[in-house]
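Field log, afternoon session.

UNIT: design team B
ACTIVITY: writing a sequence onto a fixed backbone
BACKBONE:
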């Protein structure tokens, strides 16, 4: 269900991981509950994954966007924005105060979407990944839900 979108949207501008193998599982069974999907006429057109950053109670007010993708044929029609709206609403309903994410610096499209949703840059990890022979920055962004992050 999600794998075709994952494979279709994978590029070195989007993910620092190795090219996924066709047999690779995208999600384990436990983490499927953390995924919100966009569905049109019974077909999944996108997904967003919202995880806890770890087990520490002192970190429990933070959730992390850990995967966002829209099927290439459906991109540019507002699905990404609606998925982000749903993720922020879900985070709010779970009592989160902050939602963070990491995005590769060249991924201008995703960065614009995150900014439009109220995320701002918290820091830049310079030369964090070596992708296609070039060192690429990773940008850490966050939205503070009590500061009116919206879409
Ligand atoms: C990033 C992605 C999820 C956006 O989804 P989408 O459904 O195409 O986005 P939307 O149609 O909701 O557009 C939302 C915003 O994205 C930006 N955007 C959309 N199309 C764009 C384009 N062609 N060029 C630049 N920015 C664009 C705009 O800021 C837009 O806001 P607007 O409505 O004010 O114009 C989608 O392009 C995708 O799946 N990319 C590959 C995977 C990826 O990069 N994931 C993020 C990893 S961190």
């Amino acid at each position: 269900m999600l794998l075709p979108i994952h494979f279709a949207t994978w590029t070195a501008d989007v993910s620092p991981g190795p090219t996924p193998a066709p047999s690779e599982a995208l999600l384990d069974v436990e983490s499927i509950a953390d995924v919100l999907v966009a569905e049109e006429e019974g077909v999944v057109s996108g997904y967003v994954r919202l995880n806890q950053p770890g087990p520490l109670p002192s970190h429990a007010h933070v959730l992390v966007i850990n995967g966002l993708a829209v099927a290439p044929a459906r991109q540019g029609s507002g699905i990404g924005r609606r998925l982000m709206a749903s993720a922020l609403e879900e985070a709010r309903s779970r009592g989160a105060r902050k939602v963070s994410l990491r995005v590769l610096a060249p991924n201008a499209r995703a960065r614009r979407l995150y900014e439009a949703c109220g995320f701002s840059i918290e820091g830049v990890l310079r030369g964090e990944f070596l992708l296609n022979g070039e060192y690429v920055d990773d940008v850490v962004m966050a939205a503070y839900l009590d500061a009116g992050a919206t879409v």
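LOG NOTE: The longest strand covers residues 120-131.
NEXT ACTIVITY: expression trials, pending approval
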